[in-house]
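User: My instructor asked us to take a sequence, write out its structure as tokens, and then describe one feature of it. I'm not sure where to start. Here is the sequence I was given:
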Amino acid sequence: MTEPAALSDLELDLIFYIERFAATNGTAPTDAQLNQRFANLDADVLANFKANPLVQKSFKVRGIVYPAMDDKLTDAQMHAIATMLDPLDRRSDAKKLADIGITTRQWATWLLDDQFAAYVHDRSEKLLANSVYEGHKGLIKGVRNGNVAAVKAMYEITGRYRPNEEQQIDVRRILHTFIEIIQKYVKDPVILHHLAMDLSQAASAESLSTGLSNQMLSNAENFRARELTGVVSNRQTIPIPSPIGEADDD
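Assistant: Let's start with the prediction itself. The structure tokens for your sequence are:
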């Protein structure tokens, strides 16, 4: 078989221009664009350029589809997309491409083509939408294995735990501020006693609950006192956070 003649200077210039054009625009230029760039190429010269085996080989190595196929994809491109998006194929991307005779350079160049990239995107989106069951399986497996992150995610999904919602505010600090406001206007010790008993149940620590009750009954001027008198004659040291917006004392 006769080897094709070496590429002419014009053919090399066409190849390099088409490569730059494809890298910028994602697809090869049309005949009209080539004619505009190369001052009205002769139709026979352009036809011979397209049919030249060396030109075709050169573009294949570069991953450029020339002439451009508009919204169509080549068989090699379709095969590569199907291989790369196979979720059950555990080979690396480079290995997948190599096994089907496609270089990583070709794949990267194809992704510059808007039509090619759009099809890859749409197909991968479809895969993602239909893979929810995989996430469910993984979550269930994690919960069964006692994985804390999986358990937390399961509680969030099912509505049992909402870390970003209002119940996660500092309840104690709000409670302290609320009781301070009550002390300004309520002086009746009986009413204060009932309010203190009800509100103190919201405190998580027993010592803090005792402090809340006795602080209100004693009608202390400043509820944020660092020391609160307990039910017994002894004195308990209870840390009381400052109201929202105020810095704690050093």
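For the description part of your assignment, you could build on this observation: The chain has a mean pLDDT of 76. Try explaining in your own words what that tells you about the chain.
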